[in-house]
Each structure stands twice: as C-alpha cells, then as structure tokens.
Design a protein that fits this description.
Elements lengths: L15 H34 L1 H4 L2 H27 L7 H27 L6 H24 L1 H12 L14 H24 L8 E4 L5 E3 L2 H6 L3 E3 L2 E5 L2 H20 L3 H15 L6 H33 L11 H13 L1
Antiparallel strand pairs: 1-4, 2-3
Helix pairs in contact: 1-3, 1-4, 4-5, 4-6, 7-9, 7-10
C-alpha cells in the first residue's frame, strides 16, 4: 500500500545578529547615497549645467531648492518603504553609525594620504596603494566591530532610547517644562548659528576632498610661451554652497536634538518629576502678591531712613568737641575721595 507523504520545504531562520549587521550596512550605504545626492550630487549637476548663465543666480538657486525638496521627500519615503513595516531592532542606529564611520574613514584615509604619503615624495602607484590599503583596513575594522555581538546589543539599546525614532515618550506629561526646555535649547543653538554667520566662519565656497596622488599637469600653448603650467587635482565633493547649506543642516539637527532630548526616557522622567513637584507649590494670589510687595518696599524704606538717621546721629555725637572720638571730618574725607576718583 502506497502512502502519499506531503513534503514541506525546510525554512532556515537567519541569525538576528547577522540580519542586524546586513541591515545596518545596507542602511549606511543608502544614507551615504542619499546625503551625497542631496548635498553634493544635485548641486554639482546644477553647477555643471551652468544654469546661472542661462538664468540669473537667484533663479538658478531657487530652482535648485525646488528640485531638492521633492527629491529629499522621495528619498525619505523610499527609505521607509525599504525598511519595512517591522524593521530590525537596532538597524537605524547601525545605519547612522555605519554612515558616520564610513565618512570618518574617508576623511582619515585622505588625510593620511595627503599629509604623510604625498609629503614623503612617494611614487603615485606606491602612495596610492598604501592609501587604499589604509582605507580598506579601516573599513574592515568597522565591519568587524559591527559583527561583534556586544556591539549589536549596544545598537539595540541605543535605538530603544528613542534617538532614531520620531515617537514621543509620555507625550501628555510634563508639557510646560518640556516646552520651556525646547525653547531654551533652540534659543542657545540659534544664537550660536547666528554667531557663526556674523563672524563669517562659514565660507561661501564648497567643501571638497582632494584625492591623494591625483595631480595632473596641463600645459597650454600660451603656457609654453609663458613657462606656466596648470595643476589639477581630482576631488570628492562633500558640500556645495556651505554658507547656505550648513546653517540649514545645523537648524534641522538642532530642532531634532531639542525635540528628541525632551523625549529621551531618562531626561523626560526627570522633567516630568520636576513639573509634578512644581505643581505642588502653593502659589499666592495676585492681590496677596501686591500687598506683600508693598509691605516689603515700605519696610525697606523705613529701615533705610532709620539707619540714615542713626548714622547721622552718631556722627554728630562722636565728632562733638566734648566727646572728640571721631578724629576724621566726614565731609573732608568725602571730598578727598571724590578728588581721587576724578584723578
């Protein structure tokens, strides 16, 4: 007798830590691509098209802003779609730290190549290979750090603190103290940004990284006659229109930090407890406040008048020729003091 046995495909479950590492690295790549497109790629394309010559500079910059806004919104929506309805815990923190780590590795690698290897008069092939080796080694170290189970647990804890989510923590409690804290942080941050602008610490150019050993020499016909040469370097654009873009980035980061810090569970509980204690304070009425203020002012005035009369009384007695205790004439001492102040 033959029996039909239904075979079901075996499902293999992926290790959560491995999934976290893959999600973090893919998220870091997407973040780098998005920031590069918005802050470097699109402005660079606008500059290459030379729309400022076709239109005026103001109209070209306005068109750039109008094109940047929908692209930024589209990248955010696409990122949320790729993340899915149930993202891996710790993936957002891993993506942010991965992108930040990759950017730091790029800066360190190019800095070492330009300041150490290029200054040592190495051959371009040798120096370029050493620079690339340094970058690859640092990148492998970053991936190795992400693969450590302890680092994955730390990513989950950092994300559970709420720094990478737009969810409020006990949003209906401690509203007045939270709003005051946000306003204070925004005020301090805006003053700092205004100071940077007024002191002209933000230049009007662009931030670009010079690639080590990418020097090329161009000699034109006029240069052959004049004995001059034009030197070019390959660069990696980081940020165009620094004087306009960087203040906007700082404002957005300031707004996010100000709102997020009052929703950080540890600090939010402190603010909520502070407002709860303030609600226990018995505040006086307006009428009683006015009455107490009048009493205090009248008391101060009477005490001032009393001390003035007592001071004059004892000066007269002690400077009397009969008692003759006060040897210094107060008026003469006052005149000498005034003469010294004028000098």
């Amino acid at each position: 007798m033959a029996l039909a046995v239904k075979t079901t495909p075996e499902t293999t479950t992926r290790n959560p830590h491995t999934q976290l590492v893959l999600s973090s690295l893919l998220g870091a790549v997407y973040l780098l691509f998005s920031f590069g497109l918005v802050f470097a790629g699109l402005p660079g394309l606008w500059r290459a098209l030379e729309l400022g010559k076709v239109f005026n500079e103001f109209l070209a910059d306005s068109l750039l802003i109008l094109a940047t806004i929908p692209i930024t919104i589209g990248l955010v929506v696409l990122g949320l779609k790729l993340e899915g309805a149930h993202p891996q815990p710790g993936a957002r923190a891993g993506a942010f730290l991965g992108a930040l780590g990759a950017l730091l590795i790029l800066l360190v690698t190019i800095g070492i190549g330009n300041n150490w290897f290029a200054s040592a008069d190495m051959a371009p092939t040798v120096g370029g290979g050493l620079t690339l080796a340094v970058g690859v080694a640092l990148l492998i170290g970053l991936i190795w750090m992400f693969c450590k189970p302890g680092f994955g647990k730390w990513l989950v804890q950092a994300e559970e603190a709420g720094w990478f989510h737009a969810t409020a923590y006990k949003g209906n409690q401690g509203l007045r103290v939270r709003r005051g804290t946000v306003i204070a942080l925004l005020g301090i941050g805006v003053c700092g940004i205004i100071t940077l602008i007024q002191r002209q610490l933000l230049n009007s150019g662009s931030w670009e990284l010079v690639i080590p050993f990418s020097r090329t020499v161009e000699t034109t016909a006029q240069g052959l006659l004049d004995g001059t040469r034009t030197i070019h370097y390959a660069t990696i654009p980081l940020l165009f229109y620094v004087n306009l873009t960087l203040p906007l980035i700082l404002l957005v980061a300031l707004a996010w930090f100000s709102w997020r810090v009052v929703n950080w569970p540890a600090f939010a509980d402190f603010l909520i407890a502070t407002e709860a204690e303030m609600n226990k304070v018995s505040w006086t009425t307006r009428k009683r406040l006015v009455q107490d203020t009048i009493v205090v002012l009248i008391t101060l005035a009477l005490l001032t008048l009393f001390l003035f009369v007592v001071d004059i009384f004892w000066i007269k007695i002690l400077s009397n020729p009969i008692v003759d205790v006060l040897k210094i004439d107060p008026q003469e001492a006052r005149q000498r003091q005034q003469q010294g102040a004028e000098w």
